[in-house]
Amino acid sequence: MKAKLFFFVTLLFVSAQAIAQNFKIDAGHSSVQIEVERFGVVDVVGRFKDVQGTITYSADDPSKTSANSVIKVDSYDANNIGGEDAVKSVAFLDAANYPEISFKSKSNVTKEGQNFLVGDLTIHGVTNEIELPYRIKGPLMDLPTQKQSIAFTASITINRQDYGVKFNRQLPNGIKLVADEVDITLTILAIAE
Predict the structure, then answer these.
(1) Is 0.90 topped by the overall pTM?
(2) Alpha helices (H) in the chain, listed in sequence order
(3) Is residue 9 part of a domain?
(4) Alpha helices in 57-161 (DSSP H)
(5) CA pair distance 84, 167, nearest whole angstrom
(6) Number of structural domains, the chain?
(7) Residue whose C-alpha is closest to residue 184's, from 17, 34, 4, 8
(8) Whose CB has fewer CB within 10 Å in the chain, the N or C terminal residue?
């Protein structure tokens, strides 16, 4: 009888470990950074400070990982008011008409040891499916909250033209004022719900 009880308790513990857990993005310790070439010379770096959403994760079964997030366009900060206003303007992200950027994963795949979230990225009202390569550390105890936490990192390069951001002015030599390719880097802390 004791052996059966021990087996049942062990089975419950193992099953609980395999169940994916929801983690809420901690906006205060997370950022979405973008980098884009300006005038063909320098890369301008900015970040969106307001990122919200959840990540579902199981350390025992990474295939259960999923994510759903929203970024507020108006939270863009580049330490340059003119540049910030330009990014939020009608010429680029048009924060007044498209106040949010969103990502919603649909599946999880592994290729050559790298995990990818496959999902819909919506920018400027245009949605495209992407494969987002990511890594997760944790879960580990977050001391301030005394809850389990994970660190989610990912990076991808997109073409802004694919999302209807059509600004196309050029220098006299034909170089675009702002390049089409945009590097996106996510550094996310998420706390267990």
Answers:
(1) no
(2) 2-18, 81-88
(3) no
(4) 81-88
(5) 15
(6) 1
(7) 34
(8) N
Query: For tokens 């919200």, what's the residue?
Result: 52
Q: Which among 184, 174, 192, 186 has a CA at the least distance from the CA of 39?
A: 174
Which residues does 160 contact at the CB level (< 8 Å), separation at least 6?
A: 36, 92, 123, 180, 181, 182
Per-residue pLDDT tens over the stretch 178-187: 999 999 999 9
Over its C-alpha atoms, the chain yields an Rg (Å, rounded) of: 20
Element (H, E) at 3: helix 2-18
- Give me the torsion for CA of 57, 59, 63, 67, rounded to 10°: 20
| Cα-based torsion angle of the residue sequence 15, 18, 20, 25 in order, rounded to the nearest 10 degrees | 120
Range of the domain at 136: 17-192
Helix (H/G/I), strand (E/B), else coil: 72: strand
Asked whether residue 12 is domain-assigned, the answer is no
Report percent pLDDT > 90 for the chain.
84
Q: Is residue 89 part of a domain?
A: yes
DSSP state of 10: H
Peptide bond into 139 cis (omega under 30): yes
List, for residues 32-57, the tens digit of each pLDDT value: 999 999 999 889 999 999 999 999 99
Cβ atoms of 74 and 95 closer than 8 Å: yes
Confidence at residue 63, expressed as pLDDT on a 0 to 100 scale:
87
Domain annotation covers residue 4: no
